[in-house]
Amino acid sequence: MSRSLDELLRVMARLRAADGCPWDREQTYASLVPYTIEEAYEVAAAVECGKPTELRDELGDLLLQVVFYAQIAHEAGEFDFDAVAAGICCKLVRRHPHIFAAAGEAPRSAREQTRVWEDIKAAERRGDGTEPGKPASHLDGVPQALPALLRAGKISKRAARVGFDFEFASHASDKVEEELAEVRAAAAANSATEPSPEVFEEAGDLLFAAANLTRKLGVEPEAALRAANAKFERRFRAMESLAGGTGEPIETLDLAAQERLWQAVKRGE
Fold first, then answer.
1. Distance in angstroms (rounded) separating the CA atoms of residues 240 and 244
2. Could you read off the pLDDT of 106-127 as tens digits, one per residue?
3. Are 208 and 152 in contact (CB under 8 A)?
């Protein structure tokens, strides 16, 4: 174990000691989950901004989460950090048989290795069994806690592995158009001020179909939506700046004037 990692484990143990930090001592697996999710997204943001030092710092914050969980588990006599590291090493070796077990086997392409990886994962899920009284499913193991957009991509990918998939991306695009038409029909029939259950359901179907289309196009939907969010934010801030420069705050402009600002920002990019 490296000196730095060994020191990190000692620091974490000290923080969790009887005379350590009160906040660190009161944390549990469950209380750490929101921080872990936040740190994972901050790693993604650091990758997108392309700053190695920021990525280094965010990876350190994410590593702290792993060490924190492992320390809690160690105190409970369940497992420790070494067991976590040993487990992932075993998994990597098991899922790369052409590298570690099959001497002389021809190198695989990235696409072929992805297929083998997924096949091995599927075999592992079958070996793990399922809840008593619950039939096994190819969708087993997709965490419920994943962001909905990310989970949509994963479960549609699982279904595709057994052949339940559109043959071409154009077919998935047609499905998006079909779902959009159903949203419009449900919205037109909704006379209440709040969305009807039908509107709610059809809107969900539209989002799922869009996530499925991005998968067929080879686009990671979560990353694509983050990029779209960033683009909208950049353009809207520029609109606010242009409006402020004329002495008319953006909230005082009508929609037509705001649209002209939007188009001006787009032309200037």
1. 6
2. 656 767 767 766 777 666 666 5
3. yes
What confidence score (pLDDT) does residue 232 get? Answer: 95
CA dist 22 and 258 (Å) reads: 51
Residues of the chain with pLDDT under 70: 1, 101-108, 110, 113, 116-117, 121-134
Question: Where does 3-94 sit in CATH, by number?
Answer: 1.10.287.1080
Cα(125)–Cα(137) distance, integer angstroms: 9
The ranges assigned to domains in the chain are 3-94, 137-219, 223-268
Question: Which CATH topology does 137-219 take?
Answer: Helix Hairpins (1.10.287)
The neighbour count for residue 241, using CB atoms within 10 Å, is: 12
At 230, the amino acid letter reads A
Closest CA to 67 of 16, 138, 141, 23: 16
pLDDT given at position 105: 62
Quickly list DSSP for 21-64.
Answer: -HHHHH--HHHHHHHHHHHHHHHHHHHHHT-HHHHHHHHHHHHH
